[in-house]
Amino acid sequence: MWYIVLVAAVVSVAKAQVFGALGCPTVKPQASFDLQKYLGDWYEIYKFKANFENGQKCAHANYLLKDDGHIRVNNSGKTADGKMVQALGDLYMPDSTKPSSLKVKFASAAPYGNYVVIDTDYTNYTLIYSCTSILGISHFEFAWILGRQRTMDQALVDRLFAELKSYNVNVGHFMKEDQTGC
Ligand SMILES: *[C@@H]1O[C@H](CO)[C@@H](O)[C@H](O)[C@H]1NC(C)=O
Ligand SMILES: *[C@@H]1O[C@H](CO)[C@@H](O)[C@H](O)[C@H]1NC(C)=O
């Protein structure tokens, strides 16, 4: 019975997310991480395809420190018919000895997902990777490149693509976010 439930769960995420064979690739989180410097506004420059954001443009995130030390994430974007939509989430650092390995969730009933900061300079860009292994035989993954502005130098984009690729992540899944006419 649990097997049927698992297969159903896997099939439903498979339709929404990028799927890969085997377990998660081993990526190297950034060695140090300063949550304070990470707060504020970020614009989505590239992302792996994700159903929950489909059809939106101008994706923007605001990270705000809460009293409990967690971060309130406000993801917003514009739908095809120009409507502003938002999703509020919770981001936190479960283990201070692994400061760049964060956890995030958007629905109160949903489990926390991985949010690994692979590389950020806080003032221009952040490269985020999220992977969930399914019994080590399969995995689903997301990646995002966010910037402090709606545009990013191509040289920087190329460097971040190369960095993720060095961990055997297929950067062919990246899609450019439309940040025009916002
Ligand atoms: C989330 O961000 C959007 C866009 O900036 C803003 O319109 C909305 O008021 C924000 N929501 C909250 C709860 O702050
Ligand atoms: C990052 O931002 C700083 C300050 O905003 C700027 O001086 C620098 O040139 C930027 N670096 C890159 C690689 O974009």
Automatic annotation (TrEMBL):
> Organism's domain of life?
Eukaryota
What InterPro entries has UniProt attached to this entry?
Calycin, Invtbrt_color, Lipocalin_ApoD, Lipocalin_CS, Lipocln_cytosolic_FA-bd_dom
What is a biological process (GO) this protein takes part in? response to reactive oxygen species
- Please verify whether the record's keywords include Lyase: no
Q: Which GO terms describe its molecular function?
A: lipid binding; pigment binding
Q: Does the keyword Flavoprotein apply?
A: no
Query: Which ranges carry the Lipocalin/cytosolic fatty-acid binding domain?
Result: 33-173
- Entries under PROSITE patterns matching the protein: LIPOCALIN
Give Gene Ontology CC terms: cytoplasm; extracellular region
Q: Which UniProt keywords apply?
A: Disulfide bond, Glycoprotein, Lipid-binding, Lipoprotein, Secreted, Signal, Transport
Q: Which CDD domains match?
A: lipocalin_apoD-like
- Identify the stretch annotated as signal peptide in this record: 1-16
- Alphabetical list of Pfam families matching this protein: Lipocalin_2
Primary location: secreted
Q: Where in the cell is it found?
A: Secreted
Coiled-coil ranges from the UniProt annotation: none
Q: Which family does it belong to?
A: Belongs to the calycin superfamily. Lipocalin family.
What protein does this entry describe? Apolipoprotein D
